[in-house]
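Catalogue entry: protein
Contents: sequence, fold tokens
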Amino acid sequence: MGSIENLTQNLASRFPMNTLEPEEFRRQGHLMIDFLADYYGKVENYPVRSQVSPGYLGEILPESAPYNPESLETILQDVQTKIIPGITHWQSPNFFAYFPSSGSTAGFLGEMLSTGFNVVGFNWMGSPAATELENIVTDWFGKMLQLPKSFLFSGGGGGVLQGTTCEAILCTLVAARDKNLRQHGMDNIGKLVVYCSDQTHAAMQKAAKIAGMNPKNFRAIETSKSSNFQLSPKRLESAILYDVQNGLIPLYLCATVGTTSSTAVDPLTSLTEVAKKYEVWVHVDAAFAGSACICPEFRQYLDGVENADSFSLNAHKWFLTTLDCCCLWVKNPSALIKSLSTNPEYLRNNASETNKVVDYKDWQIMLSRRFRALKLWFVLRSYGVGQLREFIRGHVGMAEYFEGLVAMDKRFEVVVPRVFSMVCFRIKPSAIIGKNDENEVNEINRKLLESVNESGRIYVSHTVLGGVYVIRFAIGGTLTDINHVSEAWKVVQDHAGALIVDTFMSK
């Protein structure tokens, strides 16, 4: 017995390090919170888009890891001097590019708690609370959106928190693929056809590649300015009929509520009517704009979702829930489970065998998963439906204000009608003397975008709509207020004025 005790003591002396000692964790945790609070307090002062050159970090960090421990204070000093210069500040109130990645105290604290518990909730047994809270908050959120009961656990469907829309689309595409092949035969995979518009996010094409779709059977249907870049039901049906006549099998349609380029809204009611005639799985991607539909005045944009098979939005974009948190609802969970489930012996347990619990490992690509439901639960409870609606309405109001500023300056034009909180605008051809060619006008607007972003004062991004280079001004940052929007417009005006003068002088 003594020898065992001696052996234990010897081993303990050899492995003395405790990397999660509560009091040291408390001390360092306070340092980290203070650091981040200071960061948020001064984030407005940093250049919004990082100004570093490629490879900058490799030039200033050591070539190998340290042999001896370094203090948190030392590490945070390097974060301040070496890492922050290489960050594009998505939480800056002057960030208007892409779509927002909105954060909040509640979202951050929920994420912190999730990280602190560090559970791996691949099945119900892995952490019952992780699964059951996810069941509850996805039903809560679904009810806020007035989703049909068939999308909720209480109605036979259900929700799952994925990482991103890319995962949601891939999972539903694989479910649709396997369901179809079980009916038509596995050797028909080369005949399956996927449909979307030319405005659909590139995640759709990527998912089709991963899912083994024939690249020749990917249909990105052309849209036009005359219809505000919505997907036309007539063009969809024409494409489907052509494929059917040529012996192909229509499989999957991705319709969008709030496209990335212009926040166009596809006509869900008409599109789903066409799709159902041909037994096509319909997924509705509302990654950015879906959050707005908790407001009664925007709910109309989901009309027709009752005829879809799946629906997703990113709570980490415009719903105060830190990255990553994509909410996916499906009417038929068994379609996902049949495609994505694995049941090795080492994961068998009595709860799963009863079929009375959800094992989320069978609803997603990965096996492991984080306790994402905590941060969404914190957001829903901390702000409530009323305050969340006002948060969204505030950004829409600021976008309306910005749209008005653009309209008042005769050098600019709004390219497509604003729907939510993003304005698509450009310097119009008449403002550029002697530059009537569309390619030349596009180049002037490209130079304006780059000039504005190089200033570091604001950050905006672009797109091309019907051959027209467009500057996208997306409002949705947690810290953004009307003064930031007003100042951003002044930055755009100043840079545009200088550019127009330079263009005239160079003639």
